[in-house]
Design a protein that fits this description.
Blueprint lengths: L2 H17 L8 H31 L1 H8 L5 H18 L4 H12 L3 H8 L6 H21 L9
Helix pairs in contact: 2-4, 4-5
Protein name: Transmembrane protein
Organism: Planoprotostelium fungivorum
Keywords: Membrane, Transmembrane, Transmembrane helix
């Protein structure tokens, strides 16, 4: 059996395990616990994100004056707020999970910081480049979850 066929077989086995796991309908009590756990995560995450985004919007004038370019307040508020909110909301899952989520949330800010360093206003082409970089990061990270790995099992 070649690598491609082996990978497909492994993926089908994983799907079979997922479909028959208690979290997919067989364990109602476990489903309810997961629902409540993730409801709390989502509430903490979205609330902190909203507060930080609004703070960034409120400080737009100060931020624009400090870096010499407009448009970064809400983006910084949302980006930094997202990293902060994900980290805080992830704490019940464990320290390493929270730090991992927080670090992953900071990565899409790198193109924003690059544009800020160049003192480019956050409009037009700058927004498109930052958005494209974030989309590429999302696609690469998301797809890597489904791509066959070269790790030995």
């Amino acid at each position: 059996m070649n690598n491609s066929e082996n990978w497909r077989r492994q993926q089908l086995e994983k799907k079979e395990l997922v479909l028959h796991s208690p979290s997919h309908g067989e364990g109602k009590e476990e489903d309810e616990k997961n629902f409540v756990r993730f409801l709390k995560f989502g509430t903490v995450d979205a609330s902190l994100l909203m507060l930080c985004t609004l703070a960034g919007f409120s400080f737009e004038g100060v931020i624009a004056k400090r870096i010499g370019a407009k448009g970064y307040g809400p983006v910084l508020g949302a980006g930094i707020g997202n990293a902060f909110a994900d980290t805080v909301a992830g704490l019940p899952e464990g320290k390493s999970a929270a730090v991992g989520v927080g670090c992953g949330a900071v990565l899409p800010l790198i193109p924003i910081f690059g544009a800020m360093a160049l003192r480019r206003e956050f409009t037009g082409a700058t927004v498109m480049v930052a958005g494209g970089a974030s989309a590429a990061l999302f696609a690469g990270t998301f797809l890597s979850s489904y791509w066959p790995s070269n790790e030995k099992k």
